[in-house]
UniProtKB/TrEMBL annotation:
Keyword Manganese belongs to the record: no
InterPro entries: Rce1/LyrA-like_dom
Organism of this sequence: Falsiruegeria litorea R37
Protein name per its UniProtKB record: CAAX amino terminal protease self-immunity
Gene Ontology MF, one: endopeptidase activity
Pfam families assigned: Rce1-like
Coiled coil: none
Length: 279
């Protein structure tokens, strides 16, 4: 928290974006969009968003608004475009977004390797697009089943001993001074956005067509595949984490359970193990 307070002059625009994400997650759509607009103005002024980024982002959000009530062949084409737009933003493939570095080569502990964290202006737009386009995103799908939900969280926790055996992690207790910034960015700009796409949208859409098992498995595999550039081992662990989040979403009945499992895993990783891996 000390780091966050001492860097407020640099981070204040991003706090507006995170407030927008939090408002949207809480169901306050109009407040979220107003805050998003305020952040966009600040981001353009500061050079984080260029005219190219606006020309990419604004049409995507407009398309999402139209898709909320669209039907037929035009809707299918529109959804295809929105999915490709979302994947490209999430993978940082589109130009004009100047994502600054918030943490540059910091250490969570002496046994950990250096960690760099960006403040991404592109990926969070995916959440706002889905908030506009996908009616079921925040809806309660089914009653919460507590015991299976606990088992889903336990599956995520079981990944830690597996990673230790595989040599991917080592135990290390730490409390870095930048933990406050990490919590906000990881929860709202990473976990919320990723879970909204993979569980709140993709898994829901797939389970409606191929059933729960197929939808959870497919979304988990796709979540793993996007981590392939980090290596096959990371892809495998990401797939299993995706399965835990998918089961959490299914048995919890709401997006928030997937988000909290994902974020809880990341926070435990930081606090009790070498992060992002051993030196």
């Amino acid at each position: 928290m000390i780091y966050l307070l001492s860097h407020l002059t640099e981070l204040w625009p991003w706090l507006i974006l995170m407030a927008a994400l939090g408002a949207g997650w809480s169901g306050y759509k109009r407040a979220a969009l107003v805050l998003l607009g305020l952040w966009a103005c600040a981001a353009v002024y500061l050079g984080v968003l260029s005219i190219v980024a606006l020309a990419i982002g604004a049409p995507g959000l407009a398309l999402a608004t139209w898709l909320r009530s669209a039907t037929g062949t035009a809707a299918a084409i529109g959804w295809t475009i929105l999915i490709l737009w979302s994947v490209a933003l999430g993978a940082h493939l589109l130009p004009g977004f100047n994502n600054p570095i918030a943490l540059d080569g910091v250490l969570s502990g002496p046994e950990s390797r250096p960690f760099t964290m960006h403040l991404n202006a592109d990926k969070p737009l995916v959440f706002f697009a889905l908030l506009l386009a996908w009616n079921p995103l925040l809806h309660q799908d089914r009653p919460t089943r507590v015991f299976p939900l606990i088992m889903a969280a336990a599956l995520a926790l079981a990944l830690f001993p597996m990673a230790i055996v595989a040599g991917a992690l080592s135990p290390e207790v730490s409390w870095p001074d930048w933990i406050g910034l990490f919590v906000l960015v990881n929860l709202l700009m990473t976990c919320l956005t990723e879970e909204a796409f993979f569980r709140g949208f993709l898994q829901k859409a797939l389970t409606g067509r191929i059933g729960a098992a197929g939808g959870i498995a497919s979304a988990s595999l796709l979540f793993g595949l996007v981590h392939l550039p980090a290596g096959a081992a990371v892809m495998a662990f990401a797939t299993l984490l995706g399965a835990a989040c998918g089961l959490g979403h299914w048995y919890g009945g709401r997006l928030r359970y997937a988000v909290w499992i994902h974020f809880g895993f990341n926070l435990i990783h930081l606090l009790f193990f070498t992060y992002p891996g051993p030196a």
